[in-house]
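Reviewer 2 asked us to include a model.

Predict the structure of this chain.
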Amino acid sequence: MVYTDFSIETAKLLLKFAGACFATNKQEELQLNIALFCLGLTVSYSVYENFVNIYHYWENDKSYSVYASCNVLCTIMAASKILVLRIRRLELENILADAERHFWHWNYNSEEQLLFSECRLICKYFIMFVLSIPPASLFGYVITPIVSNIGKNKSERILPLDVWFNFPSTETPYYEFMFTFQIISVFLVGTAYVSPDTLLCILNLHVIYQFRMLHYRMLRLWKRNNGNTDATKYAIQCSEDLRKCVNEYQSLIEFCENMEHVFSRTLLIHVAIFSVLMGFDGYEILLSNAPLARRCTFIFHVAGSFIHLGIFTFSCSGLTEESSKISTIIYFGSWSTLPMDQIGKSIRSKIIIVMMRTMRPCCLTAGGFFPVSLKTFTTVTSSSYYSTLTVILRAICFC
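Predicted model (structure tokens):
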């Protein structure tokens, strides 16, 4: 029986909408190519239109130019992450296949099933959050022109992005067509923006709970001795159980290394562009003369971006913490009660090797430059934010 889960299937579906998932047949391959083509068309239009707006408004309305610059950065971030996953989709397929073989099943004992059920529940809540909060942020792009058009006649209607084509964009049906096209473009880019990190967080949460199951198995290693068990037989049983735990630990390390290979560049892209985006957003909210509707859009964008960054850095940090706990858990086991024969010495040597390996815990990095953790979140949202904002303000003042 194939294991299915709401959170996993939803994360895969979001990637399919962005054209970055893998295909199992020719029909799915065609669908993915169409989705990728639509995303490429949307990204090309968005980047072109925003650059044109920056060019036309830079002298007279720097606030709108900064607004267009934010749109360009968000679009480039989303397209870059999808492009990376598209290039590495075979590796991504292998990761998901490994997870289906080793994680996503019900072949657990009662205690492990409790942990697995807790993981599924957290993933379910996370997906529900992803399906509700980011769209609320994107609706700012819908509400802004609607609010601005209140009290205006049809010839003064504005779009989410100003267009510079030679046709009457304020007249029906051109206005409705362009409005619908731009809103669809916003949500396509938004899907590409959140889908890679959504799948990453789901995988991180499952790996975290796999490490917790491994903790439980390591603690259970020494509970076979009830006082009547022969010491040699007890040592043989412990050695066999420890071998299984070490093999599982090695498979988790390999799985984390595969995730690092696939997602490290997407993390680097997100963290690098995020710090610049916060500077633009801070300027629009605090210092620009932007309309209230547009300022509200940036407030929602800042809140959503902070939550987005906080969630996936928290999941990456949890991965590092759970993998580093193995050293403490195996050290405080009852290995000292084992006899000092060949088997006992072999077990002690294996424990030392495991403890030495845990001194380099599993982690995901931003392009190999630094590990992603909650420290990344605090660093990017404090020093990077203020330094970027200062640079932007000085550049605008000099202009």
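The first helix runs from residue 6 to 18. The CA atoms of residues 282 and 389 lie 7 Å apart. We have added this to the supplementary material.
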